[in-house]
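Subgroup meeting minutes
Present: P.N., E.W., G.H.
Scribe: E.W.

1. P.N. recapped why we're keeping a running log of single-chain structure predictions: easier to compare across weeks, and new members can see raw inputs and outputs side by side.
2. G.H. added today's entry (80 aa).
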Amino acid sequence: MTEDGERPGFWFKPKAFGYGATPATWQGWLIVAGFVLLVGAITRFALPDHPLFLLLLTPVALALIWITRIKTDGDWRWRP
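Output recorded in log:
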């Protein structure tokens, strides 16, 4: 464990409330920032009303979900 309580190799931690995960390390924040930049680029260069918009956006979103899920220290479940 690191000094902030996170286990090495995990970039995200389960959310305290709700469903999903939140970044816990700089690597996790880098993945999220890269996602935001990539979605911004797709939005800028493949206009949202263009047929390719969802075709380009879907694999990027699925990749973020997949990376977040395998790099989360714990399970994803609803936390009230």
